Amino acid sequence: MSADRPRVIVFDLGGVLLDWDPRYLYGDWFDDPAELERFLTVVCPPEWNRLLDAGADFPTAVAERVARFPDYADAIEAYWTRWGDMLRGPIEGTVAVLEALARRGRQRLAALSNWSAQTFPLARARYDFLARLDPIVLSGEEKCVKPDPVIYRRLLARLGEPAEACLFIDDVAENVAAAARLGFQTVHFTGPEALVAALEHRGVL
Same domain, yes or no, for 102 and 185? Predict the structure, then answer.
C-alpha cells in the first residue's frame, strides 16, 4: 500500500449514505409552502436539530418547542414520533461503494456522523449495511458535533490511527475543511459518481 493510500475510509452518514430530510415528512403536512418554510426555519430550524444531534434529549426538546409554539404542537411532536418518515432510505450509489470496499477488505470502514443517539437505532435496525462500519462515532453520544475538532480526535482515538491514514468523506464543506486542518485526507461528497472517481484517483477502488 502506498504511503498516501488511506488505511481507513470514514463515511459521513446523512447526505452521504442515507437520504434524510425533514421535508420528506412535512412536505405533505403543510398546504402552504410559506408555512412549511416558517416551520423549518423558525419553529424547528436547523440549529434546533443541531442541538438534538449534540445530545439534547428528544422528548424534552420537543416539549420545550411545543410550549414556545403551541399552534404547531402536532407538527413538532411528529419530529420525534414520526422521525422515521424523514429518512427516505439509502443513497444507493454510495452504498455500492461501501460494499465494494468491504469486499476488497483493504481498508477499515468507519463512520463519523452528526446524529442523535436516540434516533440512530431506528436507522441501524433498517439498514444492514451500517454493520460494515466500525466504529460509528455519533455526535449524540459524544455530546459534540462536527466541525468541532474534538469529535474528529475521538474518532482517531477509537481507530488508533493518525489522521493522515484516514480518508474522510462528507457532504458539508465546513466538516471537510475541519478534517483537512487536522491532517485527514478528504473528499467533499457531491454524489456517488464523483466519489467513485475520487477513490479511483487515490487507488482505493
Answer: yes
Q: Identify the domain boundary among 86, 111, 128.
A: 86
| Plot region of 203 (φ>0 → left; ψ -120 to 50 → alpha; else → beta) | left
Same-domain pairing of 97 and 182: yes
- Reduced to 3 states (helix: H, G, I; strand: E, B; else coil), residue 112 is strand
Select from 40, 62, 86 the last residue of a domain: 86
Q: For residue 72, what are the domain limits?
A: 21-86
pLDDT at 36: 97
And the C-alpha cell for 157?
482515538
Using an 8 Å Cβ cutoff, are 135 and 120 in contact?
no
Q: Cell 426538546: give the residue.
A: 61
Q: Are residues 12 and 39 in the same domain?
A: no
The strand pairing partners of 137, in sequence order, are 112
CA nearest to 152, candidates 108, 113, 198: 113
Task: Give dist(CA 70, CA 76) in Å, integer.
Answer: 9
Task: Give 63-107 pLDDT, tens digit per residue.
Answer: 999 999 999 999 999 999 999 999 999 999 999 999 999 999 999
For residues 198 and 187, what is the distance between their CA atoms, to the nearest angstrom? 7
Per the DSSP assignment, residues forming a β-bridge with 187 are 169
The pTM (predicted TM-score) of the whole model is 0.95
Give the Cα separation of 78 and 87 in Å (integer): 13
